[in-house]
Amino acid sequence: MLEGMLIGLQTVFSIQNLLMVIGGCLIGTFIGMLPGLGPMSIIAIMIPVAISLGDPAAALILLAGVYYGAIFGGSTSSILLNAPGVAGTVATSFDGYPMARQGKAGKALTIAAISSFAGGTIGAILLMIFAPMLSSVALLFHSAEYFGLMVVGLSAIAAFAGTGQVAKALMMTLLGLIMATVGEGALFNLPRFTMGLMDLQSGFGFITLAMAMFALPEAMFLVMNPARTTTDDGGDGKIKDLRITRAEARAIAPVIGRQSIQGFFIGVLPGAGATIASFLGYAVERNIASKEEQAEFGKGSIKGLAAPETANNAACTGSFVPLLTLGIPGSGTTAILLGALIALNVSPGPRLMIDAPEVFWAVIMSMFIGNFVLLILNLPLIPYIAKILAVPRSFLIPFILFFTLMGAYIGQNNATELLLLVGFGVCATILRFADYPLAPLLIGFILGRMLEDNFSRAMQLYDGIGFVWERPMTMGLLVIAVALVLLPSYRERRARLRAAGVADGD
Amino acid sequence: MALDRWIALVLLGICIVYGYAAFFTMDDGLAPFMQRNPIWPSTFPKVLSVMGIVASSIIVLGLEGPQAPPKEGDIDYRRLFDYDVLPAVALLSLMVAYALLLRPAGFLLSTSTFLIGGSLILGERRWLIMVPVAFTATGFIWYLVQEVLGIFLRPLPGFMGI
Predict the structure, then answer these.
(1) Where are the domains of chain B?
(2) Contacts with A, B 9-48, CB within 8 Å
(3) Is residue A481 in a domain?
């Protein structure tokens, strides 16, 4: 392994490859900030540039840099504007945006940068150690287990349900799942619930829904209630605003440690990826937090921000395991990377480590350097990025609305999406008036397709529902899911009974 | 009845219509060989509709207790007309107009009009800042999306030939 690492370091530390890492991170960060352009589209756009380099190691290093940069850039728009452009950063906005509203935008961005760095770096160490053996474990996961894993992901709704509002969160998840069934599914090749409209053939766009659920209602609230206008901490650009206190560092350190490991292992599973890792990370941290800390989640908790940020970066690194060791792309992004590698005459798979060790190790080494470059590039930029919030609202709000429209338009190149965006945005605003949580709807929508596909595949393989009790791992995951849903209600009930008991005693 | 329960009633209606489609109309055109499968395209929607009907009924019947009061800084819908509702409606109408005009009027014209219109609605009257900001931002974003990223955005109105 040491020899491999040295080969990797030698490759990465050439001037050309260092420039690739820095350039890739910068391009990824800046374009990733625009809602609608996720890592997948940015990497797809960069492929011709990467292939023209001719050197597979340099190409992969550039694309990997773009990938990390885009994930980090995506969290910036989630935190500052509540406009998550990528599914993996939706959970970041749950606590990142409230922090920005409390005037802690700089601190939120710093925590995001540090968590991303730690998640990515620890993920890369784990990748180095576990890549060969994990590739065989990932193959043990069949569609039945994926179904179980998705149900656990959905049970994360328990984490978002307000006290005594579990039915509302559940209803919103179901609504998200129902919306995911609109359009043509992968397994059946039949248009469903399209009402004969051609524009609905491919279903609702994710970006459209994400913008409609988060950015648009927030912008409407800002317009209706000017007193709600964000307080800026970027106005004077003082560096003290960015500092994390010792107590805060102590609070997030265990979260980062846990989520780096959990996120990495979820990322290894093909198809699971950064989105599930971030939602699960958020849910797990909320459930194990103390009661006072739990009340903070969703209102600007630093733990609630650090958890998904660490997990999604660790999962991105984890998703390289099946790509590099088995040649199986675990996500859309790694599928595009696979395409680029094949175009460069490198076939990833079990023999990659033997046939092209310089590519394998250079990518792993570039992960360390990429994460480091991201950190040192972004920390000094944070005061300037946070200044976005100091723009007067008469300019900021039209721009937020414009970016939500562009995000929806670029994703599908269809003007009907814009009308859908406005329609859903109005519905989402009304739902928020009535205190319905919107995050579960989006989670249901994101996981809906994958959930149904895996459920259908498992049903076909086992000729019925038998897979639930025939596969112990599926059963275990489903039990965890039920516990996740019931635990908040149980805790709430116990707290109520205890409170009643105290009252009686008085 | 509070707003959340009215909404749940609407959602209940949606779930019933969705369930009706899943149970009674979806499988009509199903090919015979697909009918032998353990799972049909309607299986998952059927499960979802039943669960949706149960969940929305729980909210309609108020089994979970009353709606929590709005959080600090959130909008209280009971006092909706104390807020600036008109600019919000005007901005939404502007977004609809943008959606309808983006293709026929071209990106540059519709976007700069949208940005200037949005600022005007929110009370901005400094034309010397508004107009240059809108034009510069529009031009920059068009250049970035069209020329750098290679995603086609028609810049000028359709009758001008591009």
Answers:
(1) 3-66, 85-160
(2) 11, 14-15, 18, 21, 26, 37-39, 41, 43-45, 48
(3) no
